[in-house]
Amino acid sequence: VIYEFPGDCSYLLAGDCNHHSFTLLGDFQNGKRTGITLFLGDVFELHLSADGQLSQGGKRLSLPYASHAVFVGSELGFYKLWSEEFGFAVTIDNAANIAVTMTKIHSNRTCGLCGNFNAIPSDEYTAQEGFLTEDSYDFANSWAVKGADQACRRVSDPTQSCNSTKGTAVLSSCSVLQTSSLFLHCSHLVSPDAFLSLCQAEACYCDQKNPEDCSCPFLLEYVRTCRSHGVLLHGWVEESQCFPKCPIGMQYSECTKPCSTTCHSLNIQEVCKEECVDGCTCPTGKVLDGNRCVEVSQCSCTHMGRHFPPGSTISQDCNTCVCRHGSWECTNEGCPGETRVQHHFQACC
């Protein structure tokens, strides 16, 4: 089920609605996605902003992060928060799009903006109060989560018509979904109608300098949906003039390995479960070191949670270790034997 909702509050995206073991909130401001807030039970809380800032209780944390069976990191230009134990994964891309995936164990157990996961589209708009509605705005507004210091305004369905030059340019950009032979390769599996309607609606209140910034997120989601159905739309970037943004030094790829090569994965035999995903990658010959692409020879190393530049040395178990190519190369010497000295005391009365 596809619908549009320019939220202005925190909303329940998805969660375990039977046992409340975890809750995923989507944070929005004036229709823009600003981040994700995760709750595990009633105690543990994490917040991941759209620009990758991670915090807990107002205290900033560093990436990558692992605690309470929850992992947070960045790969392929996405910020990712996931937990195998709780069966969910959340990604935020550079356009601040938020994607939530769940394992089948949560079938018919979830609620919120992402629905109840029961494979029945007709009851997807079930409001928090339990009633079924045909209005996506009534449905979405019902899942607002008001904090103690937060007042949420009810969002209304915009009614304005498009008559600006910018709106016309956005409409033209959206039209490739039904006019381009490249996009039509997927139409027999994924109808472009809903994506086209949302893209056209965005033209009414697009406030970006470039019209493509308004239409491209919808085209990108259509491409990703097609890929999930086994259809790769090679060349869609050039066809639509949509060039997804990537961090400085990285480049966008329509099809790349989901397991990005980093300095710290060079010596790990990682098995990638998916054949191809889109995302930001380092140029050929370079690998990701934190948030920048470097030559392998310039890879840093980590020890006890700290980062060390290449060439750094540390002492470990009576050996000297040098940081080379992202890993520690250590001497192999045993520690000197320990000498025990016994003192005998004699008491005199």
Give an overview of the whole structure.
There is one protein chain. The chain has 349 residues and is α+β, with helices and mostly antiparallel strands. It has 4 domains: 10-145, no CATH class; 167-240; 251-294, no CATH class; 300-330, no CATH class. The protein is 16% helix and 28% strand. It has 7 helices and 20 strands. The protein has helices at 136-141, 165-174, 176-179, 181-184, 193-202, 212-228, 236-240, and strands at 10-15, 22-29, 32-40, 44-49, 54-56, 59-61, 65-67, 70-75, 78-83, 88-92, 98-102, 251-256, 277-281, 286-289, 292-295, 301-303, 306-308, 313-316, 319-324, 327-330. The strands form 6 sheets. Strands 1-2-3-4-5-6 form a 6-stranded antiparallel beta sheet, with no helix packed on it. Helix 2 packs parallel to helix 6 and helix 5 runs antiparallel to helix 6. The protein is globular and about 80 Å long. Mean pLDDT is 82; it is low at 338-349.
Q: Strand order of the main beta sheet, please?
A: 1-2-3-4-5-6
Give the termini separation: 93 Å
Strand content: 25-35%
Structurally, how many domains make up the residues?
4
Number of strands: 20
Give the helix proportion (percent range): 10-25%
- Tell me the overall shape: globular
Total number of helices? 7
Biggest sheet descriptor: 6 strands, antiparallel
Q: Which structural class should the secondary elements be placed in?
A: alpha+beta
Stretches with pLDDT under 50, minimum 5 residues: 338-349
What is the element string, with H for helices and E for strands? EEEEEEEEEEEHHHHHHHEEEEEEEEE
Mean pLDDT: 82
